[in-house]
Amino acid sequence: MTMTRTVLDPRVADPAWGTAPLGTRTPRHLRLLLTLNLLATSWYFGWLLDPARVGNPGLYAVLVVAEGLNLVQALGFWWTLAGERRFARGRPGSSAGGPAAVERPSVDVLVPRYSEPVEIVEPTLAAAVRLRGGDVRVWLLDDGDSDEMAALAKRVGAGYLRRHEHTGAKAGNINAALARTSGEYVLVLDCDHVPHPDFLVRTLPAMADPHVAFVQTPQHYANSTGNPVAAAAWSQQALFFGCIARGKNVRGAMFCCGTNVVFRRAALDDVDGFPEDSVTEDFLLSVRLQERGWRTEYVAEVLAQGLGPEDMASYASQQLRWARGCLSAIPTTLRSNLSPRLKAQYLLSSAYFLSGWTVVVYMMLPVSRILLGAQPLAVSGADQFLAHFAPYFALSLLTVAVAGAGRYTFAAYSMAAAGFWIHVSASLAVLLRRRGRFVVTPKSGSVGWQPRAVWPALAAIGVLLGSCAVGLAHARDAAMLNNVTFALLHVVVLTSGVSGALSPQWARRLTAPTRTGTAAEPAVEPVVVP
Question: Is the pTM higher than 0.90?
Answer without folding.
Answer: no
